[in-house]
Write a structure and sequence with these properties.
There is one protein chain. This protein is mostly helical and 79 residues long. The chain has one domain. It is built from 7 helices and no strands. Helix 2 packs antiparallel against helix 3. The longest helix is centred in the first third of the chain and has 11 residues.
């Protein structure tokens, strides 16, 4: 899955607006940015592509969660 798809899925898991707000705040997104994302009404996919969500759920965050990068696996030289 692409990172934006995983972000979208994680946002859906967090539930309603306050749950999404708490998730973003726990990821280090500022108060104002979190509410701007939560109040965005264009849908899950568009919300997952917001800059604040990408900042909170960065590639490093996915690595800390235990997910491996497909790109890193494919570009690793095998001898």
């Amino acid at each position: 899955m692409a990172a934006s798809q995983l972000r979208c899925y994680r946002l859906k898991q967090s539930g309603r607006r306050y749950g999404r707000y708490k998730l973003l705040r726990s990821l280090g997104v500022t108060n104002q940015e979190s509410w701007n994302v939560v109040m965005y009404t264009q849908g899950w996919w568009a919300m997952s592509n917001k800059q604040a969500v990408s900042k909170g759920m960065s590639n490093e965050w996915f690595i800390r969660q235990g997910l491996r990068s497909i790109y890193a696996e494919m570009t690793r030289k095998k001898y």
